[in-house]
């Protein structure tokens, strides 16, 4: 028995070592980009002779970069709001509704997650050209919303499926209207699912590059598109600074989601 425990202990440390190595392998390119953004070399050289904040200064003083940053933030906020609202309505229909073809409808909503992004981008590009939405904020919102909506539906549907509907019945018996039940019972009970839907919807729009490349115009570009176009022309460290900004916001939101979704001990 002692030998078995020794083997289990050894296996535990082996698994920890393997997990740490895999995590380091995944994080190393990101850490490499962050280090490049602080290097004082005018080229993407690592290790750089010294350290500087010059590239961040150029990032926030260049009107082109700032406009792209603001465009990405504005689109992400709009897409987040629409994705959560539409995802909530769709989830209520899919989880609570009793109609034929419900599984097919659910699969249809999740299609953008399994469809190659470039195929979706080409289809959206052709549609946008035909109706005159290419290079417009509306076209961007539609394209990003199609990608973000499945994440919202999955998060909210999972919360609704695990929600005890007897609480709603009790509220109805106590005299609450159906609308009051949804607002004062259902929504607070599934708030974690709604929060997760908002986080993933925001990140889906904030980080999207393939669809954005097809939908962009010379006067309307998101930050990932600006990074991509700059990489094709000039390997300036400002690109590393912009990439680090994307990584920083994504990491912050993921950590916030993990903290808020962590079970809280009852005192």
Automatic annotation (TrEMBL):
It holds the Pfam family BPD_transp_1. One of its GO terms (biological process) is transmembrane transport. It is found in: Cell inner membrane; Cell membrane. Keywords: Cell inner membrane, Cell membrane, Membrane, Transmembrane, Transmembrane helix, Transport. InterPro entries: MetI-like, MetI-like_sf. The chain crosses the membrane at residues 12-38, 75-95, 107-127, 139-157, 192-215, 235-260. The keyword Ribonucleoprotein does not apply. It comes from the Bacteria. Coiled coil: none annotated. Residues 69-257 form the ABC transmembrane type-1 domain. One of its GO terms (cellular component) is plasma membrane. Its main location: membrane. It is a multi-pass membrane protein. PANTHER family: INNER MEMBRANE ABC TRANSPORTER PERMEASE PROTEIN YDCV. This is ABC transporter permease. Belongs to the binding-protein-dependent transport system permease family. It comes from Caballeronia hypogeia.
